Amino acid sequence: MDRLFSLDERLKMCASLVSENARLADVGTDHAYLPVWLMKNNIISYAIASDINEKPLESGKRTAEKYGAENIDFRLGSGLEPISSNDKITDAVIAGMGGEIIGEIILSSPLTKDKNLSLILQPMTKSEELISLLYENGFEIEAQKCVVSKGKCYTVMRVRYSGNRISVDEVFPYIGKLDLTDETNRLFLGAHIRHLENKSIGDSNLKPLVKKLKKMIL
Question: Is 108 helix (H, G, I), strand (E, B) or coil?
Answer without folding.
Answer: helix
